[in-house]
Write a structure and sequence with these properties.
By secondary structure, this protein is an all-beta fold. Helices cover about 0% and strands about 55% of the residues. The strands form three sheets. Strands 1-2-7-4-5 form a five-stranded antiparallel sheet, with no helix packed on it. Strands 3-6 form a two-stranded antiparallel ribbon. A two-stranded antiparallel ribbon has the order 8-9.
Amino acid sequence: MAPSGASIVVLVRADETLVFVGSHDEGTYTIGLSSVLSLGRSYNVETYDSERDAWQSTVIDTAIPVHSIGLSIEPGGYRIISLRSPRRNGIAVNDEA
């Protein structure tokens, strides 16, 4: 369920999860991620900020469980969050044996 004042769409495919968060009201929103992130994996994260018209890159390591993120969004603004497993030689690092 989306927080009051926000709309959320989540798209999942084998190598990437995209979370779209749009804001109707100004505020800080807490977005649950526990249903889309696997415990013990690392993720390359890119976040698009419509207010800055820019992408920002970070890494999440779920060895420590990540249950949610907080986003501050102005009215009419949105964020796109791309979560991908790190890759080495074309293979997802988390999928190596």
